[in-house]
Amino acid sequence: MSKYDFKKIEAKWQKEWAKGKYKIWAASDSGKEKFYDLVMFPYPSGEGLHVGHVEGYTAADIIARYLRMKGKNVLHPMGWDAFGLPAENFAIKTKTHPSVVVKNNVANFAKQLRSLGLSYDWSREVNTTDPEYYKWTQWIFLQLFKKGLAYEAEIPVNWCPKDKTVLANEEVIDGCCERCGTQVEHKKLKQWLLKITAYADRLLEDLKDLEWPERVKEMQRNWIGRSEGAILNFQIKESDFSVPVFTTRPDTLAGATYLVLAPEHPFVTRLLNDGPNQPLIKNLDDVEKYIFSATKKSERERLAEVKDKTGIALEGVMAVNPLTKKEIPVWISDYVLAHYGTGAIMAVPAHDERDYEFAKKFGLPITEVVKGLASQLPYLGNGTMVNSGHFDGTDNIKAKEEIIHAVGGQKTVNYKLRDWIFSRQRYWGEPIPIIKCPTCGNVPVPEKDLPVELPKVENYEPTGKTESPLASIDKWVNVKCPQCQGEAKRETNTMPQWAGSCWYYLRYLDSQNKKALLDSKKEQYWMPVDLYIGGVEHAVLHLLYARFWHKVLFDLRIVSTKEPFIKLVNQGLILGADGQKMSKSRGNVVNPDDLIKEFGADSLRLYEMFMGPLEDAKPWDPRGIVGVYRFLNRVYMLVTSDKVKGKNTNLERLLHKTIKKVTGDIGGFRLNTAISALMILLNEMEKNEELNTKDLEQFIKLLFPFAPHLAQECWQQLGQKGLLDYEPWPGFDESLIEETTFDLVVQINGRVRAVVKADKDISQAEAEKLAQGDEVVRKWLTGPAKKVIFVPNRLINFIL
Ligand code: ANZ
Ligand code: ZN
Questions:
Q1: Which ligand is nearest to the CA of 489?
Q2: Which of 283, 351, 552, 574 is the most core-located residue (most Cβ within 10 A)?
Q3: Ligand 1: distance of its center to the CA of 225 in Å?
């Protein structure tokens, strides 16, 4: 028996695998059945790998190693998503250039990943900050531009005063910057946008073909937020102005007892601009005060104030309900958003919760127009029309179309999804490949001039002036217009950090290609990604953006699949031992490097997989890793013991059962229960006086995807020479697994009194005899049975 020296074992095999630049894990671009096994590539932060990375990466590695043994051609690549604010902020703080920061961080991350024994095909490594890579990110931008899918517009934007840059809507969480938590400000700025809204229907429609967690699909559906409705017009009395509203319930028009405008609504702005001269509003001062306070809140805050709605009437202003011709008051409230629908609503308090709250609070009239079975208000369901003139008595769903028609309204579809704000006023990103010419306007940089490289500069701090630091580098900025040769300037904004990750999974397929984004034969062979593992925090950011770009590339015939990622698995959050999210301030962070030092990479891998179902959130248990470490120790001691020379074994049935279980569990992502099965098998093996080497080899193969270093070492100890990576995965014989005994349930007068082991398919007479042989049963059998009920292979019931 030898000591499990994990340090020596892991170093030894990592060195072996590294030979020839990890050639053993290089995928070939043709031949065998392919499997594209992808993990979300990391942002190489200064903090290094955390246990959450280890979780997802280990799971994906287990699948890769298992499928190689199953004979598949597995592509399991790795790369770096390295543009973005953290590297830039760190660079500013430490006065090191971001490219140097990234280089150091990448080196550290790569070392950490290798120390975990993750079997990547390193020949395909990509780095989004490499000019050879972002050349193609810029190239895709140009295709978007040429298709009219990238455009510039003056728009209200979210501005983070701390990061001094514009944020996308997706990057604002509860009114705060997703990155630094600072309250977001609203500004109007000229920005680049990508027309993701043009793909809204397809992004929605194609979700149905994806094997994704329902929760993530639902988040995308809500984010896209498609709703069918109509635009109806309300004339303002004594004015040439009419207010269009967007409603999903045109059937309730007769119940619209007032209008509500967003504080930013153009009608309000116009009246305010007219000042004291405007003839309509009587309470102008109060209205101005209200608007001032409302527009300071964030959109999310405004929506969140469900209970305590605020608002103010525009005194003197009346609108006309186009169906009933009744005059109704007009209010302003911040629960109506300026940038959704038309920025104005018809309020139907009888059938809408928010309108109901508002009407109750301000004593506005409530008219019921749809009657269902329930009679409480607000009634949100369908039913029969009432109080609606000649529509009374009709089904409300039928009435929708007729009412739109009757008042000259227009059917429309609305989306919550906004176009993607794509420019950032920061240094560390892909330059947007556009030249601004006073004569020709926005001119794309000719493709032959790509990449537009980031200039190496001393000063890359944000200017805070809504302008990128690149704007001050005259030598870089001033260029000739490619169209008219006149004096022109480069676009100085850079792309957001999400750009590079929108298509990296394609570059892995052909990472060295200098002529094209990728070769179409390779694309056709490898796509789509068969399995994508990563965190759920990317549900509406990366995963939506990447699907959008993929569809654009599909339309350009650069990719042949409609969707990039067929199957998605979200690893659950690993919590601190206190059950809270790991964070430095709480002091509950565990560091993978320390754990590898203390217990070895195999223990860390195995433990993280053993903690619970992959997709669940799980608290860290310091004793758990010790338990797993002991298990691996026992494996090693067994393999190096003299039991191994044995011939006979009674393990066949359990071994085959375990092979079946582990195979099925890996296929179903039940990695924790696969490990339990291996533990049960080890227990049984330890009880044996002697062991058959062949049986032990099978066990080692099953262990290999989980604990590759130890398994490989054991394989060698058992006298095998080669690497386990392409050894065939063990098969099992179903007939050996079948149970030969069963648990016979014994009942007396219908109550269970005992359970006894019985051979399969025994007769009733045999079962009776067996039952009567049991002491407990004898105690209860106080007389002869009047009747015996026997269910073969299940139970016997004595009725006394
Ligand atoms: C009248 C009505 C009656 C409505 C009723 C609902 C129920 P979704 O499904 O999310 O698209 N709405 C329209 N524009 C709005 C805005 N800018 N800010 C806040 N609310 C707005 O919601 C559409 C419904 O939300 C619309 O239909 C409108 O209220 C409101 F019994 O119109 B409804
Ligand atoms: Zn020009």
A1: 2
A2: 351
A3: 12
Q: Whose CA is nearest to atom 31 of ligand 1?
A: 351
Q: Is residue 556 part of a domain?
A: no
pLDDT grade for 260, boundaries at 50, 70 and 90: very high
- As a whole number, the mean pLDDT across the chain is 93
Any domain includes 173:
yes
Nearest residue (by CA) to ligand 1, atom 18, is 336
CA of 487 to the centre of ligand 2 (A): 8
The ligand 1 atom nearest the CA atom of 340 = 17
Is 295 a residue whose pLDDT tops 80?
A: no
Indicate the DSSP class of residue 512.
T
- Which of 248, 328, 404 for a ligand 1 pocket mutation test, highest count of atoms within 8 Å of Cβ? 248
Burial status of residue 401 (CB atoms within 10 A of its CB: 0-12, 13-18, 19 or more): middle
Q: Which domain holds residue 750?
A: 739-799
Residue 509 CA to its chain's centroid (Å): 22
Q: Which residues pair with 436 in a beta bridge?
A: 442, 489
Residue closest via CA to ligand 1's atom 29 equals 247
207-211, 303-307, 710-714, 782-786: least confident range = 303-307
Task: Please tell me the residue having the least CA distance from ligand 1 atom 25.
Answer: 247
CA 618 → CA 125, 580, 626, distances in Å? 31, 10, 17
- Say if residues 600 and 629 touch (Cβ distance below 8 Å): yes
Report the number of distinct structural domains present in the chain.
Answer: 3
User: What is the structure's pLDDT at 41?
Assistant: 96
Q: Is residue 691 part of a domain?
A: no
pLDDT in tens, 25-79: 999 998 889 999 999 999 998 889 999 999 999 999 999 999 999 999 999 999 9
* pTM score of the predicted model: 0.86
Residue 371 lies in a domain: yes
Q: Which pLDDT score is estimated for 663?
A: 98
The band of 551, judged by pLDDT with boundaries at 50, 70 and 90, is: very high
For the chain, state the CA radius of gyration: 34
In the reported structure, the alpha carbon of residue 435 is separated from the centroid of ligand 2 by a whole-number distance in angstroms of: 9
Same domain, 285 and 144: no
| Best of 221, 345, 386 for a ligand 1 pocket test (most atoms within 8 Å of beta carbon) | 345
Last residue of a domain, one of 475, 490, 505: 490
Residues 323 and 408 in one domain: yes
**Taking 90 as the threshold, does the pLDDT of residue 459 lie above it?**
no
For residue 157, report the distance from its CA to the centre of ligand 1, in Å: 23
The Cα–Cα gap between 487 and 135 comes to: 24
CA-proximal residue: ligand 1, atom 33 (nearest)? 247
Q: Is the pLDDT of residue 299 over 70?
A: no
d(CA 630, CA 650) in angstroms, rounded, equals 25
